[in-house]
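Section 5: illustrative case.
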């Protein structure tokens, strides 16, 4: 290379070096001072959030936790862990003081960031307490919010203090500020909510679109005021359907609250009112048949009656007795009727052979004596009596018929005297034939079952005491109890049929203490019968509240429906023409109220159908869930506002 070439190459390399020196270096450059400042701000905010979330007890909390882990601070700023050589209180105090000093340092270095974190952290306990802020009434909610605000303020004030006196002062001051903020928060959020409704409700009303939000609020409010959960309501309705009462609906299951809501809709008229009113009216018309069916089933009538049951039992008894008595005749010994004749002679013996006429009883007994024994006997024979089983049985049956005739004619004394004779003949026939004794026992038992039908009917009599009825029923055999149930139920059905009033409660006779006590003792399934009658009374109360009483509201609604818009327009115009401005304003408000409040026909119909639902979970579940979410959101907003208000007033 020549000298000139070497000099040129050197100049090129020098130029390249200068160019490289002037070019920026590759990679990322950082400002270490800015990074440190950002870290300090972030750590200050995090420390403030810790303090706010723990209501000022972060130093005590971390101190106790560190002490439990055996943490011991060193002078160089480090920490030894799992060192349990010292006391817990010493470790607690050392760690608490270090945390407290660290927070004070960060707060002094970055007061704005620390306070921002403290405010943000304080929202955590406030939001956690939000579900507790809902009371049963608006005043209850207000009182709860005041109480929560005071409690939060007291805790924050005590937690951020130093020493007993400072903590007590801070607790009192912040409790007062928190209570004020707690009382103001529901009112503020409620005002905002009302402003929103003032915009949304008229829109729904004007368009006649179902205001789902308003319907949901009404439904959820009704469920809440009923004191029952949605599951309880759904279970009551489902159980009613399973027990043969599908007419029992959600409005009935919610008790007085549901009944009043249904009444308001029914009396308000319109499509919603008509739908509820028609359903309730038809349900009430069918109540008599339902109650009669429950009585029929509950007392085992199975579509029969006391008279039919009595006839059936009598036919069965007689048929069985004929076979039993026929068998007894074939295996009988001579019958000794001397005791029976002696009973007759004890009554009429003093008149025999004398010219004195006795009464009709004497004559009747004398005719039976002639059939049982001879009046004139051969010399040396004391007496001659009838001993043939069949003929004695014939006399006994005739005596029994005579007793029946005397009873029907009201001749009680004659029936008693003839009864003595019948019993004596029965005893003689039983002594002569074991088969007759068995047949007689069966006949008596079957007769007692037949008599139990009338006994049961008598138990239903209002004058009877329940304790007497249940005692008498409890002493019966199962067969007699079945017959008594039928007699009781038959008389109960007669009372239901006699009650012709279409709006009366057909289940009312079964709600008295006497009737319930007797049903508990006599019904086939006492609990089922009691539940059914209780539901019928509840359903009657629902329709009575909705459709009973004064019809003024219904008449006014009918008039409005006949020409509501025209009538209101005429009324407003007439009032203005006569100078009655107040009346014109009232008519105007009445005309536009449904539109302004969103309670139009479509909205009321949503509410009505929810009340009449057979599936409350489906009809009301979404409404309650939606309302619950809205309510929780509102409580959370109130908690945030309550917390912010306390902080703004100097709380933390």
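Designed sequence:
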């Amino acid at each position: 290379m020549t000298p000139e070439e070497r000099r040129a190459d050197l100049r090129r390399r020098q130029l390249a070096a200068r160019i490289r020196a002037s070019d920026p270096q590759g990679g990322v450059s950082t400002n270490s001072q800015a990074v440190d400042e950002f870290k300090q701000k972030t750590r200050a905010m995090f420390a403030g959030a810790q303090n706010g979330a723990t209501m000022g007890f972060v130093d005590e909390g971390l101190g106790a936790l560190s002490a439990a882990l055996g943490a011991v601070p060193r002078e160089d700023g480090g920490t030894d862990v799992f060192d349990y050589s010292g006391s817990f209180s010493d470790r607690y105090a050392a760690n608490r003081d270090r945390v407290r000093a660290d927070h004070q340092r960060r707060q002094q270095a970055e007061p704005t960031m620390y306070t921002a974190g403290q405010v943000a952290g304080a929202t955590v306990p406030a939001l956690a307490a939000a579900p507790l802020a809902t009371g049963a009434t608006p005043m209850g909610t207000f009182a709860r919010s005041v109480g929560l605000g005071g409690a939060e303020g007291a805790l924050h004030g005590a937690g951020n203090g130093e020493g007993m006196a400072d903590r007590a002062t801070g607790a009192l001051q912040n409790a007062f500020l928190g209570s004020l903020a707690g009382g103001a928060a529901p009112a503020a959020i409620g005002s905002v909510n009302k402003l929103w409704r003032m915009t949304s409700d008229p829109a729904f009303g004007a368009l006649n679109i179902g205001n789902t939000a308003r319907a949901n609020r009404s439904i959820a409010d009704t469920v809440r005021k009923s004191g029952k959960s949605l599951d309880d309501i759904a279970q009551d309705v489902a159980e009613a359907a399973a027990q043969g009462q599908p007419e029992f609906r959600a409005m009935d299951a919610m008790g007085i609250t549901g009944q009043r809501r249904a009444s308001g809709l029914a009396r308000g008229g319109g499509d919603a009112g008509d739908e509820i009113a028609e359903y309730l009216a038809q349900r009430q018309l069918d109540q008599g048949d339902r109650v009669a069916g429950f009585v029929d089933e509950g007392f085992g009538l199975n579509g029969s009656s006391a008279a039919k049951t009595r006839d059936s039992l009598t036919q069965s008894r007689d048929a069985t007795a004929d076979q039993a008595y026929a068998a007894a005749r074939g295996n009988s010994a001579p019958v000794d009727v001397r005791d029976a004749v002696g009973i007759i002679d004890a009554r009429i013996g003093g008149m025999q052979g004398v010219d004195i006429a006795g009464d009709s009883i004497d004559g009747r007994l004398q005719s039976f004596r002639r059939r049982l024994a001879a009046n004139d006997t051969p010399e040396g024979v004391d007496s001659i009596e009838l001993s043939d089983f069949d003929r004695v049985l014939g006399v006994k049956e005739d005596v029994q018929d005579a007793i029946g005739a005397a009873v029907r004619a009201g001749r009680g004394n004659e029936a008693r005297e003839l009864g003595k004779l019948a019993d004596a003949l029965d005893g003689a026939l039983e002594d002569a034939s074991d088969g007759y004794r068995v047949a007689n026992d069966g006949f008596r038992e079957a007769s007692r079952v037949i008599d139990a039908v009338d006994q049961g009917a008598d138990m239903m009599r209002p004058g009877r005491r329940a304790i007497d009825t249940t005692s008498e029923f409890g002493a019966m055999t199962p067969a007699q109890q079945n017959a008594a149930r039928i007699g009781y139920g038959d008389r109960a059905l007669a009372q239901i049929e006699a009650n012709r009033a279409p709006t009366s409660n057909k289940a009312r006779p079964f709600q008295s203490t006497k009737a319930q006590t007797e049903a508990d003792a006599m019904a086939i399934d006492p609990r089922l019968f009691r539940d059914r009658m209780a539901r019928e009374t509840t359903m009657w109360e629902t329709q009575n509240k909705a459709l009973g009483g004064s019809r003024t509201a219904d008449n006014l609604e009918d008039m409005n429906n006949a020409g509501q818009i025209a009538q209101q327009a005429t009324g407003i115009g007439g009032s203005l023409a006569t100078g009655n401005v107040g009346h014109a304003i009232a008519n105007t408000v009445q005309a536009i109220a449904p539109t302004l409040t969103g309670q139009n026909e479509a909205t009321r119909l949503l509410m009505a159908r929810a009340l009449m639902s057979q599936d409350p979970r489906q009809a009301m579940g979404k409404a309650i869930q939606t309302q619950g979410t809205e309510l929780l959101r509102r409580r959370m907003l109130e908690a945030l506002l309550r917390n912010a208000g306390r902080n703004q007033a100097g709380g933390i």
